[in-house]
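Review this fold:
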Amino acid sequence: MVGVKVLALISSGDKEKVVVGLRWAFNAKTRGWVDDVKVFLFGPSEDLVAKRDEEVTTIVKMLADAGVEVVACRGYAERRGISRELENALEAEAAGRLDFVGPLIAKLIAEGYHVVSF
């Protein structure tokens, strides 16, 4: 699909919704549904990664291995006191990074990314 870019914004704390969102992003990338997909973990979804939920971290690693940029919100992580655990989990799997995602979301929208939220 020429020119289709998607930001999968995963904010739910419900594990099933998080898994659905991550799997959609993985399939969108690996099956060529879109030209580019990025995944932002925003809010309660970050807790699952920080706690190293096996299913969630496995899919995050698959995304990173497929070339999908995965970014978790530093602001949320700092407010929840999980930034160290989250950063360690992401780095252990070479699967993503922490950043302040608010400005990044605005930038991606300006660049033509469509936001899909889970």
Summary: The longest strand covers residues 5-10.
